[in-house]
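FW: tagging you since you asked about this chain on Friday. Here's the raw sequence from the shared folder, copied in full. Didn't touch anything.
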Amino acid sequence: MIIDIITILPNLIQGFFSDSILKRAVENKKVTINIHDLRQYGLGKNKQVDDYAFGGGAGMVMMVEPIFHCINDLKKQRHYDEIIYMCPDGNQFNQSTANHLSTMGNILILCGHFKGIDERIREHLITKEISIGDYVLSGGEIAAAVVVDAVVRLLPGVLSDESSALTDSFQDGLLAPPVFTRPAEFNGWKIPEVLTSGHAQNIENWRFEQSVERTKQRRPDLLE
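HL: got it, structure written out here
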């Protein structure tokens, strides 16, 4: 998979991919992540990428021309299964979307800033709009990093134990069950006996029951 990210703050997002699972995924050639500085396509000697909105009002808007030329150049290099715009009013990101994106070959992510981007880009070039929550960030870089992390960890060979991702919260519409590690008793706190029983089916049943109960308590909307 190739993931291209367009941003006006490349240094801000680069650090997300320089450690842990994402770093290993890049080093092991499971994914290629390219960061593109939109200011290279800025206008004039100051490489301008934003301007005032037609009709007035507070805040600046990312201009149509730099974004168009940047995306157009990248599309000449490869086909994109999705061209994604990170924005507060996009479709809410969830595990189902991450699963879907992980099956694709190449995706392009545009990080918004200021009051957003010229609407003509959204109308003519963007194929998917994603939000990571009902709140506003200073820019789309953190949101893009969230999407990339959730998608890349699902790629074959990225996790040392691929079955681990299948038991994550939301994969089956439920929250993950509680987990415990050694020692079996600490400070008088004991783990459930079933986990030391050695009976695989009983353990599996217990985990499912715990997932359902935890989902009822914490996220009943998922069951609906």
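FW: Strands lie at 2-7, 32-37, 50-52, 60-62, 82-92, 106-111, 128-131, 185-186, 189-190.
HL: agreed, and The chain has two domains: 2-152, 167-223.
FW: great, closing this out.
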